[in-house]
Amino acid sequence: MTTPPARTASTADLHRVVDAVWRMESARIVGALARVTGDVGLAEELAQDALVAALEQWPASGVPARPGAWLMATAKHRAIDSFRRAQNLRRKTEELGHSLVQAEGLEEDWAAALDEVVEDDVLRLVFIACHPVLAREARVALTLRLVGGLATDEIARAFLVPEKTLAQRIVRAKRTLTAARVPFETPTGADFTTRLSSVLEVLYLVFNEGYSATAGEDLTRPALCQEAMRLGRILAGLVPGESEVHGLVALMELQASRLAARLGPDGESVLLADQDRSRWDRVLVNRGLAALARAEQTAAGALGPYALQAGIAACHARARSVEGTDWAAIAAGYEALAALTPSPVVELNRAVAVSRAYGAAAGLEVVDGLRDAPALQSYHLLPAVRGDLLALLGRHAEAAAEFRRAAGLTRNERERALLLGRAGDCAGPAGIAAP
């Protein structure tokens, strides 16, 4: 028997509502439960039980006026039931040959603890999900699951891995946290700084995968960018005095402002020089610039790496054209970034800015100094940048070879097509290198 169309539409609308509520409230619910139970895995299971209850009951009863509070109350009841079962099992075990330990009042204390409003619950959950005891991939998956409220299949699709693999990764991450007895608390002192850098790294990894997909047929995955920005804004609200958090938010907002302009009508890549800047999202630009101002205001001394990168992105955002961009300032920004966090990738980006500010030959000199860097041997942007500079210098045959090499290194189909097209342009219509 088929479901009537009206009922299908109603069910679909309800599922959208439940999904929206879950993404907004899940971190708070899981955080509160984890604070009391001390077990992130159990906390998520209890929160998921509440979500299932909503899907079962709301079609008949309707969406409550305060859906988040309903989910929290339901999760609380599930938690208390779980506590009672554990207490009963312990009593029965003790009655078999051990003295009974009186637990009178514990259940009431436990329930009261769930009723407390602890503003740091979500922050603690972020620090747990991004704990350095976990591998980088596990931190990303667990953050999107626990803090972002994404389903396992959504995360798997976003990162182009089998759902089973992703699910196992999350399960192992929870077991690792339990085995390591990671406390559900916000770290302090030097540990806070170390852990915060891990949190920011995870958010940046998620954003970058959305901004420039490493594999697959799509050049970008905007949903991942949106999720990273949402989590970044939440984090900025939780730790408003941390300059680098505002710096990362600024960087993501400014970069995301160009997403629409990076794609052509058929989803092909559009280079920065060819982008229609009227398609840049001015709302995101303004938000990014405001976040950068907060990063500068809260910085105790020199700006950190995320704020420095945001400053570079701001140079692009403020310019009306590629020619009108302050490339000397961008080159200086990369120089400051390289001094703070030395990296061949940063040097490669500096080479592009140097070429714009001081000529292609100057940029090529920087690039050629990176050709033997081990970290860049499989990095497709090294030959891609070198190809650009060689083409500007009229060395078309060499440029075509570099573009072909770059195409062979990338795993993204859209980028490969762009690079092969650049090689063809250098070779000319007859397949012979242009003069």
Verbal overview:
The chain is mainly alpha-helical and 435 residues long. The chain has 4 domains: 5-96; 120-299, no CATH class; 325-372, no CATH class; 378-435, no CATH class. The protein is built from 19 helices and 2 strands. It has helices spanning 5-37, 40-61, 67-95, 106-115, 121-129, 136-147, 152-158, 163-179, 189-211, 222-238, 243-256, 282-298, 305-318, 327-340, 344-358, 360-368, 381-392, 396-409, 413-427; strands at 215-216, 411-412. It has a two-stranded parallel sheet. The longest helix has 33 residues, at 5-37. It is elongated and about 75 Å long. Residues 1-9, 95-118 and 429-435 have low confidence and may be disordered.
Write the layout of secondary structure elements.
Elements: H1 5-37, H2 40-61, H3 67-95, H4 106-115, H5 121-129, H6 136-147, H7 152-158, H8 163-179, H9 189-211, E1 215-216, H10 222-238, H11 243-256, H12 282-298, H13 305-318, H14 327-340, H15 344-358, H16 360-368, H17 381-392, H18 396-409, E2 411-412, H19 413-427
Parallel strand pairs: 1-2
Helix pairs in contact: 1-2, 1-3, 1-5, 2-3, 3-4, 5-6, 6-8, 6-9, 7-8, 9-10, 9-11, 10-11, 11-12, 11-13, 12-13, 13-14, 14-15, 15-16, 16-17, 17-18, 18-19
Key phrases:
4 domains, mainly alpha, 435 residues, transcription regulation, RNA_pol_sigma_r3/r4-like, elongated, DUF6596, disordered C terminus, 19 helices, two-stranded parallel ribbon, single chain, RNA polymerase, sigma subunit, ECF family, disordered N terminus
Give me the side-by-side strand order of the main sheet: 1-2
The count of DSSP E runs of length 2 or more, i.e. the number of strands, is: 2
Unreliable spans:
1-9, 95-118, 429-435
| Biggest sheet features | 2 strands, parallel
